[in-house]
Amino acid sequence: MTTPVCTNASQAAAPVPSYTPYTSFSSYVRARGPVLLRTARSLTANPSDAEDLLQTALTKTYVAWDRIEDHRALDGYVRRALLNTRTSQWRKRKVDEFVCDELPEQEPLPATDPAEQQVLHDAMWRAVTKLPDRQRAMVVLRYYEDLSEAQTAEVLGVSIGTVKSAVSRALGKLRDDPELTPVR
Known about the structure:
mainly alpha, 184 residues, 0% strand, elongated
């Protein structure tokens, strides 16, 4: 049996303590770790980031363990460390913006032919004129005059529910109109 060689006799004589001052920290982490991890997950979108966040907060707690006077308030201390750490990460995050010589231009939308627009407008108007008078009035007020359902109901002296149902039926008739089928 070999004995370790020591350069300092006092080190060889000192017994290794079975209780370290941070045993209570270890037991706290074992007991409250899952709850604190759920809190960390609520602060981040990625579970791996949540684990890293909790590890950082627990490291800060470990460093301050001797200074924490009320160990009953540890959860609050760790939660505050989680929030502060997350806020610091958020402030330090890398912004992916790069300077370039020219701004990228968006593709221009194809210009619509005014004649095609007029054909569509005329076909739609002919289909609207085929509707019964009451439905036509509600469609015109809702979509041509851009009134709300409440305003349309007030103008016509009917309930909002009547406007909703009549406009719904009118739009169904317009969808089924054969003259508007090629437009779709």
